[in-house]
Amino acid sequence: MGPKAKISSCVNRRQFIQAVGLGVASLVLPQCAGSAKPSAGARPTRRPNIIFIMADDMGYGDVRCYNKDSKIPTPNIDRLASQGVRFTDAHSPSAVCTPTRYGILTGRYCWRTWLKSGVVGGYTNPLIEPSRTTVGSFMQEQGYRAACIGKWHLGVGWTRHNGYVGNAKDGRKYSSHQDGDPERGLNVDFTKPINGGPADLGFNYAYFTAACSTIDGPFCYIENRHTVGIPNKQMPIDRSIHPDYRPRPGWMADGFDVRDVDTVFSGKAVEFMENNCKKTPEKPFFLYLALSAPHAPWLPPDFTEGRTEEGPRGDLVAWVDWSLGRVLNALDRLKLTEETLIIMTSDNGPRHGANDHKSAGDLRGFKSHIWEGGHRIPFIARWPGKIKPGSTSDEVICLTDLMATCAAIVEKDLPDHAGPDSFNILPALLGKKLKKPIRPAVVHHSVFGVFSIRQGSWKLILDTKTSGGWVRPSGKGPVPGTPGQLYDLQEDPYEQNDLWDKRPEIVERLTKLLEKYKEQGYSRALHKERGTG
Description:
It is a single chain. The protein has 533 residues and is an alpha/beta fold. It is 20% helix and 14% strand. It has 10 helices and 17 strands. β5 (222-223) and β6 form a beta hairpin.
């Protein structure tokens, strides 16, 4: 694989410029037969389609509508914000990939599972139990067609040559970033069906990679329960391509190219919408599109290379923006814009920006950290006729809130014990005046398992005075019983004035609240209330 590898979808620079510069280029399939454009002022009567698009490591300061000095043009994301609502205090539940993805799909904090720190690898067993309600399974029950496309990173059940089939019950058993030992029969039989992935967890259609698409083996796509091709050769590791190019060793299928993944994923998303319109036009759809960019290695496709002042990482953010534009254009062509709620966000904070670009804005910290830069993220939503264009909200929300919000949108109760850490943010999306915060508190987690809890303007970090993450400035994991940190984010949004020693009563109150959430197994009351999830 060379530095100028071709994009299989044949996207060229002119098409890219049209897509991001004008926002009107079409890279989608033909219009659905029988679809009719709503008349002026008409509002959709059926339940809305819901599209949730998530970048990987895109920061609060990467997007122009959050940071006017960003060195990365993001015209499609900015256009979405001008047509919808932009949240200024939105958060991921974790500062790294896997725990956030678990929280989004289950409405449950990942630290309630066996994964107390870090992330899973490409060969780790499934993290989500088959009995657990996911957003996909819930929406299917409400008559939606659900698709999961993109980076999965929640473990899957590979079949090993010794007959062992990975499952959620066994947790990390036989887990490795690399393939197993052939002498012990632990290497994967890629010809066998895959269990415990999105096809078994509520999604009608899935097209994904097992873990980090560009850095974790196996380097192949998975469609529903089978790999696309058989990984049969080692991924070449050529540092001359880029100094940051350091994928973990793993098997690769023919035709897999790390410069192609988000072009493939966005194309599959468009195909899913097209097929739903053609085959089941009476059904609304739920689409979870988890993009790979701008996660390292920073190897942009030819048509975004050099498009930003930040450098290769910024060029990957431009790829994210292009992918969003491709989906927006498809909605327009399919005449689905008026009846679709679309959300654009990121799974956690960014890596450091280059060339004086502030990837996290003025926030303290980056990906993996417990400080705000590790988990405060862009979050933009558009729903024509429902969400006021060009609006902003300072409501504190969390990505775990997707499940309860979907339940409120379809006016159905969640099953008992589903979404225990998910709150309905629909009132904030719709710009309703709220008498009290939607969330009584929100809990965050660093890569090393450091906890923080936020209530109102107060943010408590427990058992460490460091960042709690591996990105510089690197920190340490929690040491129970040691001093933590306390910040008043209203007065000190950039976490410069540690009040741990000055406000012991706040420390005690929030510590007790966090312990309560841990012990009872939920942070949202689980009784049924119509419209609250």
